[in-house]
Amino acid sequence: MKNKKMGGTKIGWMILIVLFMFVPPGFAHPPDSNRAVQLTAEEIRWIKTRRPVRVGVYPGFPPFIFQEDGVWKGTHIDYLNLIAERTGLRFELASEHSSTWESCALKGDIDMFPSFDVPGRRERLNLTEPFMDYKLVIITRADTPFISGVGALKGRTVAVIKGGKLYDIIVGDYPSIKKYEVNSILEALKAVSRGRADAVVSGVLLTTYLIQDHQLANLKIAGVADYPSEELMFAVRKDLPELHSVLNKAIAAVTPEERNSILRKWFPIEVTYRADWTDFIQWIAVFGAFFITILGLSLYWNRRLAMEAYARKRSEKRLKESADRFQAMFDKHHAVMYLIDPRNGHIVDANQAAVRFYGYPQDLLKQMTIYQINQLSNGEISVRLASAKNRKTNRFIFPHRLADGDVRDLEVHSSPIPFQGKTILFSIVHDVTDRRRAEKALRLSEARYRTLIETLPHGVQENDLEGRITFSNHAHHKILGYKPNELLGRYIWDFPAQGREELQSYLTRLIEEQPEPTIYFSKNRTLDGRLIDVQIDWNYHRDEKGRLVGFISVITDVTERNRAEQELFGASGGDGRGTNHGTEKDPGGTIAERTAGCVGPFRREHLS
Description:
This protein is an alpha+beta fold and about 600 residues long. It is about 40% helix and about 25% strand. The strands form 6 sheets. The protein has a 5-stranded mixed beta sheet, sandwiched between helices. Strands 16-15-19-18-17 form a 5-stranded antiparallel beta sheet. A 5-stranded antiparallel beta sheet has the order 21-20-24-23-22.
């Protein structure tokens, strides 16, 4: 690799200052004082008998992983070489795009790969201890003022890598930020350099390397992204616990000097400044000329800083009071509440109502993840956590398993809130198991009712207070000769052979007086013009408050039965013409008289 210097001391100092803001620069978690890699006999035997460990790499991430003249180089390669030297592990590099690393590992095509702590990944793979930190900074053009944080980019365009998660995180907090999609960090930096985007948010080590290596002199680090740094680690297949253990021991044995040596190798920032006596005298003259001004400004700023300190203390006091109020409300509220880290599903905190509901001790509950409670698949849970974090959806229905094994249906409302420098999900839970069971039972009951109604050989009809038919089953359509749904919207007086005006008048009277329902008979005309005798059993239709809203009728075609009775009466000495002659079998009058009524809840004797 060719080392190239920055275009001037100003840029060099700027990058150097930013690097020293993160101590130790680019690395985290000081290793244990015992530097030797103490391996067990089983681990040593596993290393000796194991084929080379296949590592997923990608040539497009300088200075972490890249190829130069066919040779793999970068910080990650140096770490792998150091680990191999310390442990005897043999590594084989498999060039795959980073987006496919996890799927390749799950299929067994590779054994490990560099990784961040991606949400849900710990459920599928073993993650080692971190070996580097990935600090985030804001890169802009040199003529851009200082950027106080990501929030200052509202309304501006940020260059982002297609499919990357960083943009979703940023826009989840600041939806007004626009995106300019690219394929790599280098393309993102060039887009900002050429004015196609206003800024890019990326790791300080990677961006300073690319700015220096590609001589993008019109770019600068304009601010520090107010997000926690991402920790770099290795993701290892679950079926290789020995590899996971050996890697952790090797990472812990790396000394601070070795880490800093790797840093200096790939990020060589040189700043030179040579002063002579002329410069010294000039500085003394300038200092003397401005001494009084500086003294006055010092007094002014001391006064101002004192006022700001007082204001800051007041703000901190109010913030603490607000936090105390929230904590008190959270702890004592009767609703089930908990806080979840959307990156890994860890339950950060849970109130007493959650402890009582789930049945776990609070200390144990706060050590668990939502993946251990939620009965959906890990993939489905991860998708919903991301959706809640990005404010796409805030209401979910989840099946959760309690400590006693009971599974309850829960309605969960989750919203992202800032908490200790990161974004977490504040969730409020309602148990809707009984309601959903009742709804299911109601649906089953309605289905049984509909099946029964459509199976009956008798017609079933509902009509409103205006006489309009609102429901008619299959048998009713068949009796009158109509196709399904053709009777809906028709009026009950459209079918009797006579008595339309009387029916309308009597409907009003029936609604007002509401007498006791009685069975009645009617002659109806079918669609093809035939006259049929029908028997109608009816009742009032009322709503849940008991108010009359219509009528329900069961309609039976009795034409054949009436004809048989008439023939029977004729054989017994009657005249068979339906005149008004009572008999012992029909003391109330003949069939002809009783079928002279009409459709609807009416009897001829009422229509006087």
